[in-house]
Every structure is written in structure tokens, then in C-alpha cells.
Amino acid sequence: MATKGKILIVDDDADFAKSTKMILLADDYEVVIASDGKEGLRKVQEEKPDLIILDIMMESIFEGFSLVSSLRSDPQLAAYKNIPILMVSSVRSDTGSRFAFDDPEDMGSLPEPDDYLDKPFKPKELLDRVAELMARKRA
Amino acid sequence: MDPPKVLVIDDEEIARVSCRRVLAREGIAVSLASSGREGLEILLQEPHDLVLVDLKMAEMDGVEVVRRIHAFDPGIVTVIITGYATIESAVAVMKEGAYDYLPKPFTPDELLIVVRRGLEKRRLDLESRALREEKEAMERNFVTMVTHQLRSPLAAILQYFEVLLAGIGGELTDSQREMLQRAKDRLESLMALINDWLDMSRLNEGEIVNRLRPVDLRQCLDEALKGLEWSARQKNVSLLVDIPQDLPRIQADPDTFREVLSNLVSNAVKYNRAGGRVTIRARAQNGSVRVEVEDTGVGIDEKEIPFIFEQFYRARDREVRAQEGTGLGLAIARKIVRAHGGTMEVKSRKGEGSTFAVIVHAAPAEGAGKERR
Q1: Any CB–CB contact under 8 A between B151 and chain A?
Q2: Subunit contact A92:B152, Cβ cutoff 8 A
Q3: Which residue of B has its CA nearest to A91?
Q4: What is the mean pLDDT of chain B?
């Protein structure tokens, strides 16, 4: 059966990855899971997903962000530069896509994902964002 | 590990070369400079752990060299080399921050003892600085890390409930659905408790004071109401706003003051009766602005009023307990208002409703024109 697209979930919380996968499967997406940033980078190249759902806080605070910045700026990964990235986190975002650290200097200048969603999310919320990002990519 | 780096500044070539020979045998990387100026240039290019400085030099004397080194990096250990006749001035240099001195002539062993001790001090300094920085970074990010540790498992559980309740993974019977919904509600109130508690511990009065600036109350209130209109409609409670056009701006930190307003209005909606009313009024009173949030709800027992601002206090009333709540909202609000230099007041009649008032300073007058954010 033709799917609506292939989505890579990068999250070290296996339960979260699983429930997210179920939501996406129920809406006819194909889903691949990676449990850390390194595996994520490998699967991006192997699977060539149409969209990446990325948890900000994997093992270290910055693992998620470093994956974004590799994908966006590493010349060797230029082929994957335009894959939309939806960041998710259970650290509440007080200010749009930038989530809150007490000291903004700890954040430095970080690459911006295409969209951001707080965990947990409602199935419909996720599917709406995913559909919108996919449409934007095709446009 | 990198070998320690020592710079020798001495205008006598024999002294420089013999220092280098002795120190190099110990595996120390040695640079040489024949004048204070040259030495300082080397330090600018490359960091060193320890500097040996001859006190008596023609161009720039040792006291000045030590002073400049410390102005540039107080962490560099400096040792003064001096002839017997100038021990007193060596003491003077130590007052300038030199770590030790070495009287001339010295044996290789004497040189090594002084340098090793200096390097040991340098190593300890660096270690304690690294530890201190690590500790500060941990303290800064502590709340964020705790947030993550507490919220992550809850988020994963809630997500499963969302999936099940959406019917993904199979149809549910009514009673299964009801139980899952209850479980989800309880988890959500636990999540709210964690959020409130984190807000409370993250609140920093000093930072609020630094962010105080003139704020348009109307605008701040509009933003606070955005998230509440839906729950007011759900409860069939009407929201009325009565703020005079010429109300002076308030001196406030917009982000936290909005929290206060949204907290009070959300309480006023939550503890109201169906078909009730919430009125938000403001008026200027000699240098201050008084904001009132009045509801037509269950009211508060007079005996309980002194306690309602305390952390985790919740009124005993059955109608109050029927609502989900963390008992932290008013404690947070009062903490914020106090950081604004303001006060809170409450009037209430059991069964008729409550009025919460916040009194904060009006912004110092300067020109007309509205603040745009």
C-alpha cells in the first residue's frame, strides 16, 4: 500500500517513540525509529525519510541540536539538508521553539527546527503539524 | 597531558639559558624572553602556567612586569628572581601578587623546588576553577534537568493514554474509555503540580526586579485572557473587563505579571458558578495601580483567608476540592507581586464570591505614547 511518506522518529524514550509511531501508522505513514542521535544520522542516510521527528533531550542536552546542525550545515549531508524537522520535548517551551534555559548563554546560537511540539501531544495535533510540514516540503 | 609551560624573563643570557637547561630536563616546556616587553608579547601569543621574572632589568623592571602579567591573567603563577640585596623589593613584588621569590645565585635544586611548588599551585587553581564552573553550570541547569527527569516519564505515559483514547490500537468500551479518561485526568493534574512547583522554584525575585519596565495593563491582560476564554465559555462564565482608557502604565515584568493575572482570572473562573461572572477592574490610586479580579463563585471562609497564599494550602470547601488544583497558584502570584514591590489583598464572602486585588507601582511618568511590544 502506498503510504503518505516516510517519517524518522529519533527519541531515546522507547515508549514515546512507540506511541508516536502508532499515531503515524494509523494515519498511513511509514515509520522508522532511531534511539539516539548517531543512529538517527545513520538512518537519515539509509532511509532518506520525508520528515524527522526529533526529541531535543536525548542522552545529553545538546544531542538533538547537534543532529539538527549536522543535517543543516555539514556539506557531506547536503542531500538531506531540506528534510523538515519537527522537534519535540517534554521540557516546556516558554518562548516558541526556543525552550527555556535559565541562562540563554547556555543555549548559544542553535539551529532552528522547522516546527516545535511539546510532549505529550494529542494525536490530531501531531498529525496536523506533520501534514503541514510535508505539504510545505512539497511546495 | 601537555607538559607544563614556563616562561623565563631575564635580561642576562646566562641566567635564561641555565634555567632552561634545568627545567627542560624535568620535561617542562620553557620559553625565554630577554625583556619584560618581549615576555608579555609571548604570553599574549601563548598561555603559560608559570613565569620566572628577574627583578632588576634595564628596560621594564620585574615589579611592573608582574603587575602587567596579573592584569592580563591573574591565574598565571609568577616567581621573582632577585639578588640578595633586593630581597625587600622582592617582598614588595609578592605584595603585588607574585607567588614566590628565588634569591640569586640559586642551585638547580632550589630552582626546581620553587618551580614545582608554583606549578602545583597552578594545577590546583585550575582544578578548583574547573570544579567551580561545573558546579555553577549544574546549578543553572538544575531546574531544567529536574523538569526533564520528572516530565519525561509522565509525558510518555500520557502519550499512551492519548493514543488509546483516540481509538488507535482498538475500539474501547464505554467503561474502559471512562477509566482511561480518569487516569489521564489524574496524570494531567500531577503534571500541573510539577509545572507549578517548578515555576515556583524557578522564580527569581532579583531577575524580576531587573526586568521591571512600563507595561500597558490592558495589553498584558489581553494576553493573559487568551488562554482562559475557552474554559470560561465551557463553564458559562462571562468575563467583563473595565479598565479606564487613561490608566497609567504599570511598572512590571510583563511575563511574570501576566502569570499573576492569568492565575487570578483562572481561579475566578474555576471556582465560579455556572452562569457566573468575572469582572476585572483597574484604577489609579496615588502612584499605584490597583487591579481587581472579582468573581461570583463559592467564596472563601473567613477563617481560611490567612492561609490561602501558603504553598499547597487548599480550602476545605467541598466545592473547592471538587476542582483540580495544586495549591500553588496563589503562592506563586504573591511571590511575583512581592518581587514587583506590590501587595495583594483579598475580600470574600462565603457563598457570594471573592475579590482579589493586586496593587503595583505605576510606571514613572515619561512622555505620552504607548509601549509597543
Answers
A1: yes
A2: no
A3: B148
A4: 87
